[in-house]
Amino acid sequence: MVAVDSQGPQDSAVRMFRRERSIPLRGSAAALCNNLSVLQLPSRNLTHFGVVHGPSAQLVSAAPEGVPLAQRQLHAKEGAGVSPPLITQVHWCVLPFRVLLVLTSHRGIQMYESDGSVMVYWHALDSGDASPGTWSGRILVFDIPAKGPNIVLSEELAGHQTPVTDIATEPAQGQDCVADMVTADDSGLLCVWRSGPEFKLLTRIPGFGVPCPSVQLWHGTVAAGYGDGQVRLYEAGTGTLHVQISAHARAICALDLAPEVGKLLSAAEDTFVHIWKLSRSPESGYTEVEHCHGECVPDTQVCGARFCDPSGSSFAVTGYDLAEILRFSSV
Amino acid sequence: MSVRTLPLLFLNLGGEMLYILDQRLRAQNIPGDKARKVLHDIISTMFNRKFMEELFKPQELYSKKALRTVYDRLAHASIMRLNQASMDKLYDLMTMAFKHQVLLCPRPKDVLLVTFNHLDAIKGFIQDSPAILHQVEEIFRQLTEVKCFFLLCLWQTYGGLSAGEFQLIRQTLLTFFQDLHIRVSLFLKDKVQNSNGRFVLPVSGPVPWGTEVPGLIRMFDSKGKEVKKVEFKHGGNYVTAPKEGSFELYGDRVLKLGTNMYSMNRPVETHMSGASKNLAPRTQENIAPNPLAKEELNFLARLMGGMEIKKPSGPEPGFRLNLFTTDEEEEQAALTRPEELSYEVINIQATQDQQRNEELARIMGELEVTDQPRQSASKGDDLLAMMDGL
């Protein structure tokens, strides 16, 4: 295990990470991007993990030390076709009044209560004019009530021509930040939106020939990870590029944020996970980035990575073909 | 998942199969002309026009089991026979080799370079044979057509794909190979594979073409002017890529993945890591009664219907190739093959589609060794000219 720390003034408490007990999975993780979702429940001393295996997704809940407590498998809804449908993503959506678990496949979108026990909504994706295996790039906006299954498709946003890879949101920050959603696609294009009764497209940030599999939004700054290993930070409102990091030697597969402390995590197929500190320079007001920590997961094509606590002092990693969730926490 | 993956999967696995057969034919001292005939017959079957047409149709990938049936037929396209245990081993080696190549491709698009490496080598299997040259008697128009057809298929399918679409193809291939951890002696020896069956992913060497060496943070003002540059320690040991591999008909591919790693002195062996818990999750796919059988049978019938198996008109004696060092080893391997790794022959009796059943049975029946001479298709003779343009 290679752990690399950069020089510079940092809080020494987060300089070193050690490997913690892994959480075993019933099935190995699939070679998808963003293939780990984490729901932190500090009040209940629990963390939920979600990983896509293929035709099934696995949910595991664990105690703080990583002891697995419960697990559940979910499947994509069957339909016509050669083989069982493959799940493309599993993700917890934390809304003001409830948490929903969302499962997507080529057939459609399934929404569950947060523990995966009850499916509350199913939205079928029609193949329509798209030939099998391609996606139209549409973004579907659903109205979610505080309770119950009365979920309604309220809007379809057009902004992308190629399949959408990731969506990031943050609560509206007040007058300073008008942007609260960013979407990314296979061509590397980013669309920045403002939510409301109708969503408004604010900015388009063009790609440069590689996909953008993962995107995050923090205090009006868009953080995007690309297929050529770059991490770029843009000002959400204007699309101005502020930081460019040659972060990885292979395609980035996941980004995550610890918003309270401005920590960004990047993971890529090059087996590395890096942690960065975002800040705004008090003199210039420009976004700045510092490298905090690098971790090598030997011989593992990482496919998902998430912080496990709001302070960014622990994170979890999944890898293609790996039937466990690796955990790291700072010493 | 991508519907453009099958041709790449098929061609590269086919290429690996030829490397392995070539090595075993020499190791078993099969006479040169017989060995060449086997390889030529297989190659001509692979590049048959009707077969290519089916192959290049946009379609989802079928299971490892279904695909193995196609290679079984391909391996028996000539006078050579393989026992089940040897065929199993051959398929294991082919799949692990290509899995390794896909995993280690620097860019998703580089899987095309791997494909070209296989195609370049296939050309080499034919060209060094003086025997086949004088057999070429074909209508020139047909020759050109077949040659152009294959290349057209390749370029039409992959020529205009974006990086995102190649990434999807890569993910589709990796899904096909998920949970396969058979240990291969050659890989273990070369330190390309760990003893737990997982491939070594190096963190040194050239970065992919188009990627920068990691280690730099650049910060800009709102006018786009660089205001700060900071280096950080990435942890790997990377260098700039020297040049890009060629995607042309001829050219330096730069990438070594997909070239022939077998030779006389490096025999092919596999270990069955059946005890490995990593294999457990896929067990259900292999032994559950297969409700997908009908779809897969349709696919197989269409694909194999396009395969014209050439049988010699003369009394050409066949022979049995053994992928193991001795017959006893082969028998032992058959007995001890772990359950979860067994590729059961798809049970065509299980389907209810009588018509499809009969059609497939007819095609499958043609697999059997008979003494009846089939009409010797001269399609195999256009092989050299067809590959000439490659």
Automatic annotation (TrEMBL), chain A:
<keyword id="KW-0853">WD repeat</keyword>
<dbReference type="InterPro" id="IPR001680">
    <property type="entry name" value="WD40_rpt"/>
</dbReference>
<dbReference type="Pfam" id="PF21031">
    <property type="entry name" value="WDR54"/>
</dbReference>
<feature type="domain" description="WD repeat-containing protein 54 beta-propeller">
    <location>
        <begin position="16"/>
        <end position="132"/>
    </location>
</feature>
<dbReference type="InterPro" id="IPR015943">
    <property type="entry name" value="WD40/YVTN_repeat-like_dom_sf"/>
</dbReference>
<dbReference type="InterPro" id="IPR036322">
    <property type="entry name" value="WD40_repeat_dom_sf"/>
</dbReference>
<feature type="domain" description="WD repeat-containing protein 54 beta-propeller">
    <location>
        <begin position="133"/>
        <end position="331"/>
    </location>
</feature>
<dbReference type="InterPro" id="IPR049546">
    <property type="entry name" value="WDR54_beta_prop"/>
</dbReference>
<feature type="repeat" description="WD">
    <location>
        <begin position="245"/>
        <end position="279"/>
    </location>
</feature>
<protein>
    <submittedName>
        <fullName>WD repeat-containing protein 54 isoform X3</fullName>
    </submittedName>
</protein>
TrEMBL record, chain B:
<protein>
    <submittedName>
        <fullName>Protein OSCP1 isoform X2</fullName>
    </submittedName>
</protein>
<dbReference type="GO" id="GO:0005737">
    <property type="term" value="C:cytoplasm"/>
</dbReference>
<feature type="region of interest" description="Disordered">
    <location>
        <begin position="371"/>
        <end position="390"/>
    </location>
</feature>
<dbReference type="Pfam" id="PF10188">
    <property type="entry name" value="Oscp1"/>
</dbReference>
<dbReference type="InterPro" id="IPR019332">
    <property type="entry name" value="OSCP1"/>
</dbReference>
<dbReference type="GO" id="GO:0005886">
    <property type="term" value="C:plasma membrane"/>
</dbReference>
